[in-house]
Amino acid sequence: MSAIDCLEIFKALSNEKRLEILQWLKEPHRYFSCAEGMDFEKYGVCVGYIQQRSGLTQSTISEYLAILKKAGLVESVRIGQWTYYKRNESVFKDLSRIIKTNI
Amino acid sequence: MSAIDCLEIFKALSNEKRLEILQWLKEPHRYFSCAEGMDFEKYGVCVGYIQQRSGLTQSTISEYLAILKKAGLVESVRIGQWTYYKRNESVFKDLSRIIKTNI
DNA sequence: TTGGGATATCGGGATAAGCCGATATACCTT
DNA sequence: AAGGTATATCGGCTTATCCCGATATCCCAA
């Protein structure tokens, strides 16, 4: 059920901007300090903030977040008009272990 | 100096056949049993064996091995007319650790 | 020193990824 | 209901990757 698809994950990680996004989501308060007082831990960061910081267009970022989500690296929740994305840390742990033992 | 380039590694890992090759090189005696008595541990496996098992052309395999090598995932040694490739396990360990702590 | 075998490199056609603008959808406010 | 805001999807252009056949290089044996 939760078997991770390494090939899809590696493809998702094969893009500089997507790697950056994952860094940002790792430390939201550091990279989105503009949004003082946001509770990033709970739901993550909304698409708009990520898009602003990226310098890419809204459509591209939306697509990139979908790629990361499809690979399982992030999860999202919609609240009102906003969609919040945050990392799925367990998948990173699984990937780390699989690389050490199975790749 | 030995800082690994994650983006290049992920790109190298973003191909099904290249992932297979890495599996084969992990257990040469299992996957290249045709070559009884070979000392795979020392130098690795020669390109010809890998090519035969892959079903791809010689040029493609040569290119794929070059991609894996450029990413640091394998190393090679030329002996006579043969080039032997084997895994660079330390890079896999590094990658595993980096994914756990830095990605 | 020439011929043959192993591997690397080159050129190219097919397919996928990068990234955009335009448009659609979904939700919120008034 | 209508307009505004946030996000997703679509169509398309550009660039990179996949994978091949042809050719070059490098090494060995006769």
Q: Can you characterise this structure?
A:
Two copies of one chain form a homodimer. Chain A is an alpha+beta fold. Helices cover 58% and strands 14% of the residues of chain A. Chain A has seven helices and three strands; from the N terminus they run ααααβααββα. Chain A has helices at residues 6-12, 16-26, 28-31, 40-43, 47-54, 58-70, 89-101; strands spanning 45-46, 74-79, 82-87. Chain A has a three-stranded antiparallel beta sheet with strand order 1-3-2. In chain A, α5 packs across α6 (58-70). The radius of gyration of chain A is 14 Å and the shape is globular. The model of chain A has no long low-confidence stretch (mean pLDDT 94). The interface between A and B is medium-sized, with 19 and 19 residues.
Structure characteristics:
103 residues, 7 helices, DNA-binding, alpha+beta, homodimer, 58% helix, 3 strands
- Based on secondary structure, the structural category of chain A is alpha+beta
Largest interface: A-B, 19 and 19 residues
The pLDDT mean of chain A sits at: 94
Instruction: Write out the strand line-up for the largest beta sheet of chain A, numbering strands in chain order.
Output: 1-3-2
What integer value in Å does the Rg of chain A equal?
14 Å
Helix content of chain A: 55-70%
Topology summary:
Two copies of one chain form a homodimer.
Chain A: H1 6-12, H2 16-26, H3 28-31, H4 40-43, E1 45-46, H5 47-54, H6 58-70, E2 74-79, E3 82-87, H7 89-101
Antiparallel strand pairs in A: 1-3, 2-3
Helix pairs in contact in A: 5-6
Chain A binds a DNA duplex (30 and 30 nucleotides) through helix 5 and helix 6.
